[in-house]
Amino acid sequence: MNQHVSVTEGDVVAKRNALVLACAQALGGASPAIVISLGGIVGSQLVDDKTFATVPVSLMQLGLATGVIPAAMLMRRLGRRSGYLIGALTGAVAASVAAAGAGGRLFWLFCIGTFMCGLYGAFVQSYRFAAADTASESFKPRAISWVMFGGLAAGIIGPQSVYWTRDLTPAAPFAASFLAQGCLALLAIAVVFQLRAPPVAAAKQVGGRPLSEIMRQPKFIASVTAALVAYGLMSFVMTAAPLAMVGCGHSIGEAALGIQWHVLAMFGPSFFTGKLIARFGKEKVTATGLLLTALAAIVGLHGLSVGHFWLALILLGIGWNFGFIGATALVTDCYRPEERVKVQAANDFLVFGSVAIASFSAGGLLNAGGWESVNWLVFPPVAVALALVAWQGLQKRAAPAAF
Fold first, then answer.
1. Terminal Cα-to-Cα distance of the chain (whole angstroms)
2. Which candidate, 20, 265, 254, 281, places its Cα nearest to that of 128?
3. Residue 132: helix, strand or coil by DSSP?
């Protein structure tokens, strides 16, 4: 009876935290949406060689990958809430630097600003793990899903911020949009302050297994590979798709609308993904996400019409949602409470490192081999990840028979 009460009380706190973090995700997740929307445009205005126009966007991804381990160390020392407050403050400073670079027509300063936006993103990306910290085992997938649903709002808030502020500073194009991004980060400070995270003492527990031992677990290898493939391929194809659409004669507006549908597909299913995981299991939902990613590539290979591009991007978004949320839930099975910070940091470093590589390479690979080659490159990683997840699922089902 006492144990039941404890779980119930824990999920009351977990639900509150998940809602708080979903709101923080809506605000913090708008930051990369703004950088992705404007980074290439502003970059093209600041450099003569247009080859470097998308460097600010890629540097944001690099900043995210670089920041996950320092962010985790900071939160391990100070606790989740204090770390997230520092992260949001970093986001406000980053946006100001980017605005100064855009306004002053200083490409190097603008790049520093977008790199710092990536550092802020390193904190934001760990919101999903923070939601699971206080949740019972049964509620963890739903808590993660709730937080990811905040990304749907971010996908609306970010572009709308650009739309309403883009013309406010004619002498410094788009500088006001980055200032608006900073205001969103400041609002996130007030939201994150409501988080009821575990005490710092719990985060600083000593002991636990060495990280190398944890990372050698088959279930860790399977879950990280699935997350890496789901997120890396999504970033790779999403980055290439607008360029491919324009290259096929479609308008910039049609390409932008395709990305908008993609973002909605990425985060829209989050409201029920957790329920699907609870009903069908983490492995099955993760595998479904990987199969949808492959299906997106098949659609991309079968035509170059606007409809083909849009359908491929929608399937890619849903595949990312199922694959990434399912893989995140799988990772939470790999560590003990005292190990969670270092394992989560290792997971995110591997995942977002792959995203940074995908972002830097997408344009070059598209230019070298075309849209068809981009889609063919999807299948080998998906096959590897599917094999690992399927094998892990079989091992899990066979485990009770061993007793």
1. 27
2. 20
3. helix
- Indicate the pTM of the whole model: 0.73
Instruction: Specify whether 195 is located in the same domain as 223.
Output: no
Per residue in 255-282, pLDDT (tens digit) is: 777 877 888 898 888 878 888 988 898 8
Instruction: Say if residue 219 is in the same domain as residue 178.
Output: no
| Cβ proximity of 149 and 126 under 8 Å | no
Looking at residue 370, which CATH number applies to its domain?
1.20.1250.20
Residue 250 phi, psi (nearest 5): -80, 160
Helices 306-331 and 282-301, interaxial angle, to 10°?
160
Contact residues for 147 (Cβ-Cβ < 8 A; gap 6+) = 18, 21, 22, 25, 127, 128, 130, 131
For residue 200, which amino acid is it? V
Last residue of a domain, one of 158, 187, 204: 204
Cβ contact 241:293 at 8 Å = no
Q: Please check the confidence at residue 6 and state whether its pLDDT lies above 50.
A: no
